[in-house]
UniProtKB/TrEMBL annotation:
InterPro entries: CBASS_pafABC_assoc_protein, HTH_11, WH-like_DNA-bd_sf, WH_DNA-bd_sf, WYL_dom
A Pfam short name: HTH_11
Organism annotation: Tunturiibacter gelidiferens
SUPFAM superfamilies noted in UniProt: Winged helix' DNA-binding domain
WYL domain: residues covered: 136-203
Residue span(s) of domain Helix-turn-helix type: 6-58
Descriptive protein name: YafY family protein
Superkingdom per UniProt: Bacteria
Length: 239
């Protein structure tokens, strides 16, 4: 039995409302009590409202019980494809979160939809997104959200390098590379930087205040496209 199927069955049994001991669950699922303890702990960590403890028994809190998730086949395909793209090209924190989200979705899907997961043959290989880049993506995203200035060394495509200090605005994915849109203090203008060409990235302690003409909406207006439309990053200046 797949682990996802086992988690789903644990939740389904606990939905019955009766207190279930680890031994009772282990007998129903034909696994060890140790496996049940581990699975229940993982379900609790993921947010499933399971009450109880080892040696006493477990039950699902009825006031927070969720009905089975119902998706169309196309919706499920879109969700799984999106999750696989995050797994391949997302930051380290996003990858961990999407793995947990998929487990939670699998655990409460009806059987016919869970079987559908294995037949989705759309993948997003991410061998170019190595772990250091995933961690850098998280770091830069936190800087964008927290409005923290960032300093780094940047190597342009022609081999020239320079030290930059920027006000990070947003991150964009161009179907193969992540870029940081920022207000560059050196150029006194908007610039877009490929994160795989950044080195010695340092998020500075100071928080910057967004000024008119230097905000994300100003960058988008200058680029001439809404932020969700892919186009050549060269249109707004690389580095």
């Amino acid at each position: 039995m797949r682990r996802a199927d086992r988690l789903f069955r644990i939740v389904r049994v606990l939905r019955g409302g009766r207190l279930q001991t680890a031994r009772m669950l282990a007998e129903k699922l034909e696994v060890s009590e140790r496996t049940i303890y581990r699975d229940v702990r993982d379900l609790q960590i993921s947010g499933m409202p399971i009450e109880g403890e080892a040696g006493v028994g477990y039950t699902l809190r009825r006031d927070m019980d969720l009905p089975p998730l119902m998706f169309t086949r196309d919706e499920l395909t879109a969700l799984v494809l999106g999750a696989r793209m995050v797994q391949a090209w997302g930051g380290a924190a996003s990858v961990a979160s999407v793995d947990q989200a998929l487990q939670r979705i699998e655990a409460v899907l009806p059987a016919d939809l869970r079987e559908r997961l294995d037949s989705i043959l759309m993948y997003a290989p991410g061998h170019r997104m190595v772990q250091p880049l995933k961690e850098r993506l998280d770091l830069l995203h936190d800087a964008c959200v927290g409005r923290r200035a960032v300093a780094f060394c940047y190597a342009k495509e022609d081999g020239q390098s320079s030290e930059r200090e920027v006000r990070p605005l947003a991150l964009y994915f161009w179907g193969g590379a992540w870029t940081l849109a920022a207000w560059c203090e050196l150029r006194n203008d908007f610039r877009v930087f490929r994160i795989d060409r950044m080195q010695e990235v340092d998020v500075l302690g100071r928080e910057f205040v967004q000024k008119k003409g230097q905000r994300l909406e100003d960058f988008v207006k200058q680029a001439g496209k809404p932020p969700y439309v892919s186009e050549s990053a060269a249109a707004v200046g690389i580095g």
